[in-house]
Amino acid sequence: MGEVIGVEALLPRLTGKRVVFTNGCFDLLHVGHLRTLQWARQQGEVLVVGLNSDASVRGLKGPLRPLVNQDDRAEMLAGFACVDFVVLFEEADPLRLLAQIRPAVHVKGGDYRPDQLPEAELVRSWGGEVLVTPLIEGRSTTSMQQKISRSDLQ
After folding, report:
1. 56 falls in which pLDDT band (50, 70, 90)?
2. C-alpha–C-alpha distance, residues 130 and 127, integer Å
3. Are 12 and 85 in contact (CB under 8 A)?
4. Residue 56 in contact with residue 89, Cβ under 8 Å?
5. Domain architecture of the chain: domains with CATH
């Protein structure tokens, strides 16, 4: 089981390890999130998940999000066996956190392309890799939210 931790306490615990980093809102957890996290964990020795704070999610997704508060989202993520550490961040993007952690691998979900990621250049600047997981079709928090709002549960 993982641990929710601040970046200052995290850094000494990463020394000498092949660190994998991924980030996101992880609002309503679904199988796409789980598979992405499991795939990411296979790329190294330690998986650190950067979690957008509630304020950050509102800025990215609108005033009705997140649906689940940051403390609950962090605890849920830390409960996955594949997640070692969860770190909250306030910004819209993970650039500051990435610069502090300097992971060997930065992983994003299959709905992205490495050339679309503003953080790709930063990660590559210290020799890190940017990897994109295989896409898991039809799995997203937005599609779940739309389905719930249509009361079209099946």
Report:
1. very high
2. 10
3. no
4. yes
5. 3-149 (3.40.50.620)
